[in-house]
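This part of the workshop introduces the protein records we will be handling. An example says more than a description, so a record of this kind follows:
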Amino acid sequence: MPQEKVAAKGLVERIGIEGSRIKHTKTDSDTTVKDANIPNHKVALKYVVDLLLDGDAGVMKSLSELGAAGHRVVHGGEKFASSVVIDDDVIQAIDECVPLAPLHNPANLTGIKAMKELLPDLPQVAVFDTAFHQTMPQKAYMYGLPYRYYTTYKGRRYGFHGTSHYYVAHRTAELMGKPIEELKIVTCHLGNGSSITAVNGGVSVDTSLGFGTVPGIIMGTRSGDVDPTLLLHIMEQEGMSPAEMSHVLHKESGFWGLSGISSDLRDIEEAMEKGNERATLVMEMLVYGIAKFVGAYAAAMKGLDAVAFTAGIGENSPIVREKVCEYLSFLGLRFDRAKNEALIRGKEGYISIKDSPVKALVVPTNEELVIARDTFELIDNR
C-alpha cells in the first residue's frame, strides 16, 4: 500500500489438527507448500512471518517493513459501523459480540491476540462483516417480535458479507462510470453461503441474511427462509433440541438436504444435466429465490440501475446468472448470452446488452483489498 500491489498471499490449513500445512505464493513465483505441526494460531502466524522474511519466498527484509495487520471480524454488533484500530476496548467489544457469532468471533479474537503476542508493537485494524449494513433503517432490521427481545438480546437483522457487498457495489459504479451516490444496485454474493443486498446511493438499506447466517435464499447446507412454525412442528414431532434443529438448519439443508447429492452447485448442475429431478428443483429454487429478493429490493429502493453477481457461484455459474436475468426482464434488464458465457474464473464485466435500462454485471469480489485499504487509511491517519 498505497500502490495496492499484492506482494504475497497464502493460507494456513487445519490449525490444531492432523495434516496442517501452509500454502504461500510470492507474486509471479511458484507456490510454496509446507507441511508442519501447527497446534495453534500463534505458531501459524510465526510460520507466516518466517515465510514473509524467507530469502527465496519472502517479500520483506525486515519486520520493520510491516506497517499493520488487518483482520476480518465477522460481528461488530451495533457498536461498529466502520473499521477501527484495535485496542483493549475494541477487543472487549468484539468479545461482547461472541453470543451473536459464537462460531466466528472467538476465532477472530484468537488471530488478533496471537498477532498481538507475536508482534506487540504492530498496529492492528478490525474490519467488520456487519459494519456496512449498519446503515439499514429500523424498518428493515427489526423483527416483529416483542420489542424487549431487541433491547435485551439485541435480536435484529445484522446482515453479513458486508465487506464483499461494499466492494462489489463500488466497483459496479466504477464500471458504469457513474457516482455511486446516484445508483440503486442489488449485489448478489452467491457462494456456499449467500446474501443479497440493496445498496441505495452507496449504503446498505436491506439485506437477506439476518440475526444469523441461515435466512434468505437456499445455500450449500443452509436452509434459507423457513416458516418458524414448521420448525416448531418438526421439533415437537421428533423431540429435537434447539441444538439439533440448529444443526439441521446450518449443516443438513440447502443444496445438500434438498438434493441428497452435494452442497457444491457444480455437482448439482452436473446432476441436473443428467435429468436428476431433485437437482433441477435445487436450481429452480435458487434462481427463483434470488430473483424474488432482487425484485423486492427494487421495490424497496423505488428503482434499480444494476444487478451485480459475485462470489463462487455468482462469478462462475453462467446458468444461474442467465436464469435470474430471465426473471428480471420485466424490470428492463436485457441479457447478453455470449457475454455471460465468457465471464468466469475471475473475469469482470457486463452480461447485459449495451442499451439495457437495467445493467447486469459480474464483479469478482476482493474483500482482502477492502481490508488493506481500510487498514492503510486508519494507520496512515493516526
